[in-house]
Amino acid sequence: MNLVTPRSSLQPVAVQGLPAGFRWGVATSSYQIEGAVGEDGRTPSIWDTFCRVPGAVHNGEHGDVACDHYHRMPQDVELIAGLGVDTYRFSLAWPRIQPGGRGPANAKGLDFYKRLVDELQDRGVTPWITLYHWDLPQELEDAGGWPARDTAYRFADYAMLAYEALGDRVEHWTTLNEPWCSAMLGYAYGAHAPGRTDMRDAMGAVHHLLLGHGLAARRMREAAGDNPLELGITLNLGTATPETDSEADREACRRADGMGTRLYLDPIVHGRYPEDIVRDLADQGIELPVQDGDLEAVATPLDVLGVNFYRGALFSGVTEDGSPTDTDGLPVVRGVERDLPRTAMDWEITPGELTDLLVRLQRDYALPTVITENGAAFDDTVAADGSVPDSDRTAYLADHIAAVSEARAQGADVRGYFAWSLMDNFEWAYGYDKRFGIVRVDYDTQERTLKDSAKWYRDTIHLTRNVHQD
Ligand code: IFM
């Protein structure tokens, strides 16, 4: 089932089927918005380095200034509060809090986030912290990066520095954002920092990211004492549908789902890696570097699973020429394009598959979920009156919020929805070319303008909350 809201009927209305207390938010991440990369003791991250590699990022762009949020934070919080959201999800820059990735906390770095939390709480907005959204201190990459076991311990130490400073006032903590991207885009495909292309490194990274998550989660839980703590991890998840009912296509889906979803959620929730994927990796001579006791740490109980959803996908197990193996002799897992509307990222728009995903997560993993990211890049234009009439984005949000409500109707325990992103920002290898914000950023002047989607989101939240007050 794929819903498509008619573009002509994008009036905000109350969303049916969401409970009182359903969380509404907007999300960002440190490197994508902060800028001020050399200020107050922050040291370089792998993204500062990667951006300088010729050809790595669109137009050689970088996060040196980004949205200048580090200097404009109070105004940005004002903007967030004006949207009527109850929650703001943001990430902490590890090299701001612990320069170089080792040793004591940097008071000035922590101070920025303390002020951010103050500003949010003064305006009644709940802070939701992500500890790691990809800005690994460069020194730790130089010492081996995520494929090295020590990085997991370094992450747990950093997590504790942050938690000790902010845990008395912040209840909602996410350890990692999208470890699949850190491991696969960063270490297997070379598309993200640090730009390595080695599958063995990527699988080492998977295990050490999960180990770091578990060690941090365990220590934070121990430290929490009487302080309320809602702890989670955020994964980028999709659905895998076979192109046909052939065994090859079903096998391709098994592999896609195994490498994208079960490789993370099985150890996190069930304390074991999926046997079929361990076997597939062994066929390539690759072993996950698991040591005694690791999986117990990885499976430290969580309160919530953060789900970042952008699209589902259709898979075939053969090449276009019908071969079951690729040029490296590996089994084919080929994404097949469908005749569906797309975003500016060329991503298919598949809201019905968000419902399917949430229902499946409920069945297989039974954790409460929050949509920690959902949104779309489109090529916005500014109208003569200064408004940004982004009806495609509004329709995308409307369809996916409806999909969440449908998932709840089918039994999925979804407790919140955060739009990605609060504002246009540095979209990694795409630089500033792709705009995901519901607020437009003019990068020449740093002026922020609410797009029509932001006004729609604000009014939808307002109307939906009122349903519960009637
Ligand atoms: O911008 C990213 C974000 O940093 C992580 N999730 C996906 C978004 C869109 O690509």
Tell me what the structure shows:
The chain is of the alpha/beta class and 470 residues long. Helix content is 41%, strand content 14%. It has 15 helices and 13 strands. Strands 1-2-3-4-5-7-10-11 form an eight-stranded parallel beta barrel, surrounded by five helices. Strands 6-8-9 form a three-stranded mixed β-sheet, covered by helices on one side. Strands 12-13 form a two-stranded antiparallel sheet. The two termini are 32 Å apart. The model has no long low-confidence stretch (mean pLDDT 97). The structure holds 5-hydroxymethyl-3,4-dihydroxypiperidine. Residues 29, 32, 178, 308, 373, 420, 427, 436 line the site of 5-hydroxymethyl-3,4-dihydroxypiperidine.
